[in-house]
Design a protein that fits this description.
heterodimer, A: 75 residues, mainly beta, four-stranded antiparallel sheet, three-stranded antiparallel sheet, 48% strand, B: 217 residues, alpha/beta, three-stranded mixed sheet, 6 helices
Chain lengths: 75, 217
């Protein structure tokens, strides 16, 4: 999910995915880099699991709070 | 008041400084002090994440034939150029302590440059919708940052004695803009060490930091 990045920032562009579908991630792993204003920001997975689906592809725009990928919980 | 290490890397290859930044980012993520790096780079063109090819006014092959490096990097912003005489500052700051607000952080960076220029009786401003710092219609400082785990890296470049002819090779920040420098405005070379000292003071004031010397590089 795209986190709050600061007052007045309502969206960001997905620049680079560091992971792809099927890959396992830890909650703290940076999985995607987004760009807003003159800043890039690395977004962590937020939960451990397997990347099921990328929802916003590189070059796509996302709003704050929007899901960027689906992650299946690890068991 | 947070502690901030300050380190002057002097004239340093872009890649070496980048590696240095990465090491310090990891250290700050793991609880180390904020760190402010200052340096100059040999002539190098860097591309942000959103640089379209048309923002090269000179074909990349020609730049390479002139031994000007082109490096794609992980910062926001468009194409920019570094050269000797330009002071680059890399604030590797923990924004969890300073404030989790990218826009406010960028505003503070611009304010550092505006205040620095005021020390030379130069009135500098922001232009709405354009990042960076301007003197009249000419741009004097460019900014672009990256953030990992809420720790910032990359930063701001301000033209002091920069040879401005290099900027004709690119479209700085993707804009049809003239660049300027302290030397151009004041009509004389400026002592780079003096400018560095003033920049450090302005960072301390704008970010409320207690400065200590960093480890030798």
């Amino acid at each position: 999910m795209l986190p709050e990045l600061g007052e007045g920032i309502i969206k960001a562009v997905v620049a680079v995915w560091h992971v792809g579908p099927g890959e396992y991630v830890q909650a703290s792993d940076d999985v995607v880099e987004v760009v807003t204003d003159k800043a890039t920001f690395n977004v962590p997975a937020g939960q451990a699991g397997r990347i099921k689906e990328i929802l916003v592809k590189e070059g796509g725009e996302a709003k704050i709070g929007e899901a960027l990928a689906l992650i299946e919980f690890s068991t | 008041m947070d502690i901030c290490r300050v380190q002057d890397l002097r004239l340093i290859d872009y890649f070496k400084a980048w590696e240095c930044q990465k090491r310090i980012v990891s250290s700050v993520i793991n609880g180390g002090h904020h760190t402010l790096l200052l340096c100059e780079h040999p002539v190098v063109v860097t591309l942000g994440r959103v640089t379209p090819k048309e923002n090269f006014l000179t074909p990349p092959e020609e730049l390479e034939s002139r031994e000007i490096q082109i490096i794609a990097i992980d910062r926001g912003g468009d194409v920019t150029l570094h050269a000797p005489g330009q002071i680059v500052s890399y604030p590797i700051f923990n924004l969890l302590k300073i404030g989790k607000d990218l826009r406010a952080f960028l505003d503070h960076l611009e304010q550092v440059a505006i205040d620095l220029l005021q020390d030379f009786d130069i009135v500098a401003t922001r232009i709405f919708g354009q990042r960076g710092v301007w003197v009249g219609k000419e741009k004097i400082a460019s900014i672009g940052i990256g953030v990992r785990k809420w720790v910032s890296f990359h930063g701001m470049a301000i033209n002091v004695n920069t040879d401005l002819k290099y900027f004709s090779l690119i479209k700085p920040c993707g804009l049809d803009v003239q660049m300027t420098s302290l030397r151009k405005i004041l009509g004389k070379d400026i002592d780079l060490d003096l400018v560095k000292t003033l920049i450090i003071k302005r960072y301390a004031k704008n970010f409320n930091l207690h400065l200590i010397p960093g480890d030798p590089f």
